Q: What sequence folds into this?
């Protein structure tokens, strides 16, 4: 596992709808592209976070 993980938040109507964690930015971006095709009304954000914030 790397020291950096990528958090992808899905927001609908200003509220957090779903949060997913990915090992690489490319995986997160691929997920966002697929989801935008199926649900264009959602907003997505991708953010780098330290793995230690997720796992103790």
A:
């Amino acid at each position: 596992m790397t020291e950096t993980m990528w958090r992808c938040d899905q927001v609908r109507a200003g509220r957090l709808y779903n949060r997913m964690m990915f090992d690489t930015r490319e995986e997160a971006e691929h997920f966002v592209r697929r989801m935008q095709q199926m649900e264009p009304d959602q907003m997505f954000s991708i953010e780098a976070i330290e793995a230690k914030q997720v796992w103790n």
Remarks:
- The chain has a mean pLDDT of 89.
- Residues 4-53 form one domain.
